[in-house]
Write a structure and sequence with these properties.
Number of domains: 3
CATH class of the largest domain: Mainly Alpha
CATH topology of the largest domain: Helicase, Ruva Protein, domain 3
CATH architecture of the largest domain: Orthogonal Bundle
Helix content: 40-55%
Radius of gyration: 25 Å
Oligomer: single chain
Strand order of the largest sheet: 2-1-3-4-5
Shape: globular
Number of strands: 14
Structural class: alpha/beta
Distance between the termini: 57 Å
Largest sheet: 5 strands, parallel
């Protein structure tokens, strides 16, 4: 008889559901020996003091991946390559894919204590010994050959996380790098999701102030009184609740760059205050008397036509000229189609971990090139992520593409020929030398017990889509919230509910 398999030692951190004696017994039956910790501080101590070699870290997640991100940072700072397995509730299905993207080696549902599930988790951990150590922020994903970036005269860090392959994009990058060397205010214009913040970071990293901080503020995300306090700061006692001095974003960005996104949404009263600060290069905190000198580069961005806003008296003309010392326009993705395939290669490289490669069929590439991309790069990322979820074999085909615009459903059913390589659209090899440790489609099948692997491809894709929509509806309070979780518009969700013709889904949507 063979000797019984020794239990797998694993650190266990779950602030949402403490490990009970019954749970520990279930884990023992599944071949896992948990070492419970309650906080990140205890985790750090255990990483240092535990003499027994650890196989993995089991981490309980709630409705987001913030705890996972903090844990990965802790592991990285401790130079520890312990793989991370995430546990999550079924109602938080969308977090599973996000966890894999963030750097987890595997994810499983919190109420599954079966030996089969835990054997799979330990196997995935054993085959991903560098998963935690190699996890990096998405923007730091390595460049993928043979994508050719424009040369950077100062530092490759400025273009490491961007794709500028199309001739229009290359010209924009070269111009931005020249503008970055001069200490002038820059106004970036372009449609939503086209990459204005990415270009602002290129400007910062290409400038002499690249060693300083990069501070950003979305002017449309907060009420007027909060924006004023965040920008200019306040002194202790300036108002009820001001119990200490507060440095505003202008002061926090000293020696660096302040990025003001959606500047066209800034209230008129704050526009006047901002103008004065830009003119005088000094500010006075709310409730203060001391003038503070500023050394900050201002970059503003907008998806609005500010000239029209000026005509409608919604934006100050003098502020417009102060901000637009130099204007840069980021074209819509449809205007720079040479970037589409390299962006797809970059997105696959960003969201994939492990050793198994991904590929995109010629028919899928043709559809991706033909689609108008009203949501620009942001929509492209959604489509790529959905395709990775629906794809069962790491080969993305046309059938795995789900576009946001329901009106393009007919386009999805068409057959395309692979485009010939031209000078405007360089040939791009989408075969990747990386893979994901737990295929997202396999994970969804596990969560919903969907045996789609034995079904025809179209049926499997439809069932996976059905499962995704059901999970989103069950975990949401409204159709709008469900659509946001799925990364599609409410109109597209209505279309898909009608196309699936499922009475139970309709009842969920109307609940």
């Amino acid at each position: 008889m063979s000797a019984p398999k020794s239990p797998t030692p694993a650190l266990w951190l779950d602030p949402f559901r403490p490990l009970s004696a019954a749970d520990a017994e279930r884990l023992a039956c599944a071949g896992v020996k948990p070492i419970p910790v309650s906080t990140l501080d205890e985790l750090q101590a255990q990483l240092t003091d535990t003499p027994t070699p650890l196989a993995m870290l089991v981490l309980g997640l709630g409705s987001d991946t913030s705890l996972l991100e903090d844990t990965l940072l802790l592991l990285k700072s401790a130079q520890n390559a312990l793989p991370v397995v995430c546990r999550l509730e079924r109602r938080h299905l969308e977090v599973a894919v996000a966890a894999l993207q963030a750097g987890a080696c595997h994810a499983l549902v919190a109420d599954d204590w079966s030996p089969k599930a835990w054997d799979l988790a330990t196997t995935r951990a054993a085959h991903s010994p560098k998963a935690a150590a190699s996890a990096q922020p998405a923007e730091a994903a390595p460049s993928m050959a043979p994508i050719r970036h424009a040369q950077h005269s100062r530092d490759d860090a400025a273009v490491r996380s961007v794709v500028y392959v199309d001739p229009i994009s290359r010209n924009l990058l070269a111009l931005a790098q020249r503008v970055a060397l001069a200490p002038v205010a820059v106004l970036i214009e372009g449609p939503t999701g086209s990459g204005k913040e990415v270009l602002s970071r290129v400007l910062h990293e290409s400038s002499p102030a690249s060693h300083g901080p990069f501070i950003g503020l979305n002017c449309a995300a907060m009420p007027e009184h909060m924006i004023e306090d965040m920008l200019f700061g306040h002194e202790k006692g300036a108002f009820t609740g001001a119990v200490k001095d507060h440095r505003g974003l202008f002061e926090q960005a000293q020696g660096g760059t302040l990025f003001l996104d959606e500047i066209g949404e800034l209230p008129l009263t704050l526009q006047a205050k901002l103008l004065r600060v830009l003119q005088e290069r000094t500010l006075v905190r709310l409730g203060g008397e001391r003038s503070i000198a500023l050394d900050v580069r201002i970059i503003a961005a907008t998806n609005k036509n500010l000239r029209e806003s000026i005509a409608l008296r919604e934006f100050r003309e003098d502020l417009y000229f102060r901000l637009s010392t130099f204007k840069l326009r980021v074209p819509a993705l449809a205007e720079r189609r040479g970037d589409i395939l390299p962006l797809i290669a970059r997105l696959l490289g960003r969201h994939v971990r492990g050793t198994q490669g991904w590929s995109v069929s010629p028919a899928a590439q043709a559809q991706l090139l033909a689609y108008p991309w009203p949501g620009n790069v942001r929509e492209l990322e959604n489509v790529v992520q959905r395709a990775m979820v629906l794809c069962p074999d790491h080969h993305i085909d046309a059938a795995h593409l789900m576009f946001d615009d329901a009106g393009c459903e007919a386009l999805m059913q068409c057959h395309f020929q692979a485009p010939e390589a031209t000078s405007d659209v360089p040939a791009v090899d989408l075969q990747l030398a990386q893979g994901v440790p737990a295929n997202a489609a396999e994970l969804l099948a596990m969560l919903h017990e969907d045996d789609s692997a034995t079904m025809p491809l179209q049926t499997a894709v439809k069932n996976n889509e059905h499962s995704l929509i059901r999970a989103a509806l069950e975990s949401s309070r409204s159709r709008i919230e469900a659509a946001e979780k799925l990364g599609i518009s409410p109109r597209t969700l209505r279309y898909k509910l009608a196309r699936l013709r499922d009475n139970s889904l309709s009842q969920l949507a109307n609940a």
